[in-house]
Amino acid sequence: MNLLKTSVLNGVAVLIKTATMFILNKILAVYVGPAGYAAIGQFQNFIQMVTTFAGTAINNGVVKYTAEYYEDESKQQATWRTASTIVLSASLIFSFFILVFQKQLSIYIFHTDDYKNIFIWFAVFLPFFTFNALFLAILNGKKEVLRLVVANIFGSIFSLIVTTILAIKYSLYGALIALSIYQSLAFLVTLFLCYKSPWFKLNYLFGKIDKLIAKKFAAFALMAFVSVFFGNISQILLRNIVISEFGLNYAGYWEAMNRLSNGYLMLASTILSVYYLPRLAELNSYNLVKKEVNLGYCVILPIAIMGSSFIYIFREDVVNIVFTQNFKPMLELFFWQLVGDVVKIGSWIISFMMLSKAMTKLFVVTETIFALSILPITYLFIYYFGFKGVALAFFVNCLIYWITCSYFSYKKLNQGVIPNE
Questions:
Q1: Is pLDDT at 105 greater than 70 in this prediction?
Q2: pLDDT value for 397
Q3: How many CA atoms lie within 13 A of 286 on its CB side?
Q4: How confident is the model at residue 177 (pLDDT cuts 50, 70, 90)?
Q5: Cβ-count burial of 184 within 10 angstroms (0-12 exposed, 13-18 middle, 19+ buried)?
Q6: What is the pLDDT at residue 391?
Q7: Cys-Cys crosslink for 249: which of 34, 270, 326, 376, Cβ 3.0 to 4.6 Å?
């Protein structure tokens, strides 16, 4: 697998996923409106935190060690057995607690208990959600790019169909149900693709946990917990800041801007997760790692720059096409958000290097600091620049993060984490 092949194959899946995402954005804009966008954002942050704690936190470790043990099938199988046992146990535990505290969760997330039944749906489908992510990680580590692409395409199609039907029929309530179940439906396809692979057997899953592998997973779990927990908590708090300062609709405009960014940057972020993590995990030379990172800057950053430039030039048309005229106030965010997106992709290249080399302490410290630092920076910039200060704060925070991570990660590598030659 090389960067060009991965880019082309993933490009197909990402184009389909991007198209479905933009169609869904239009449907949601029409049927739930700006205020509904804010509620969907809150629930998505909750889902990301729960699924991480319910098992997906170890998936980067699964990718790394599946790739690292490529020539050792027994170690690969021990990796999958340990991972699947952990994921099953964690997801069942969290499903139980979600069912017990469904009313309290609804009040905390949505400020009403009208949506408590949403959490029943989510709790029931949570194990399938987490196992879909685990099997995708296995395919990624095995470098089964074609099967991974097919799985992602079906996931996008399920997302479009389920969300469209439920949002049109039940508005916001239906959209929230769709968020709870569509990934679980994609699990059936991902499981089938793995099952048909000659290297995969169902009896490789579940059983005695390998303590050494579990210990290795712990480092990745800690990094994912910190990144996802603080990242999503900061998003929830930021959304509350915007609601407090400008109102619920403006929180929806900000959420729409974030969803737009996620859509057009999907190609770059997918290449990073599918190609970079297993590729960097294989490299045991400082010079080779540095060369691979520089290649990422030459290939991935230009994609981000071209995408953001195109979006900015046609920003008014984009808002009208992807959303509706009711979302026009989000135009104020475009410039600094798009510049920040490019910087964010640059920083991701470094953070994936940190993940691949299990720089746990450095990753945890930087993720925690910069996930939380966005809050005071946003308060400050809102005071001086109004609503666009939210996007300006995002850019500044990403830039400082990129510079800091680059300095300390290269310093750590040069000090002997891996040899220079």
A1: yes
A2: 93
A3: 13
A4: very high
A5: buried
A6: 94
A7: 34
Structure-block tokens of residue 115: 């949506």
User: Which of 302, 331, 297, 262 lies closest to 24 in space, CA to CA?
Assistant: 262
Confidence tier at 340 by pLDDT (50, 70, 90): very high
Residue with tokens 């994912």: 224
Closest residue by Cα to residue 319 from 388, 263, 256: 256
Residue 145 in this model has a pLDDT that exceeds 80: no
Q: CA-CA distances (angstroms) from residue 1 to 12, 153, 275, 281, 403?
A: 16, 20, 8, 14, 30
Q: How far apart are CA 198 and CA 91, in angstroms?
A: 28
129, two tokens: 């959600």
Helix ranges, 283-359 (H): 286-313, 315-322, 334-356
Secondary structure of residue 29 in the 3-state scheme: helix
pLDDT band at 267 (very low <50, low <70, confident <90, very high): low
Specify the 3-state DSSP secondary structure of 32.
coil
What element of type H or E holds 402? helix 389-412
CA distances from 315 to 145, 227, 318, 327, 337 (A): 33, 30, 5, 12, 12
d(CA 311, CA 325): 17
Whole-number Cα distances in Å, 390 to 64, 194, 332: 35, 43, 10
Q: What is the mean pLDDT of the chain?
A: 83
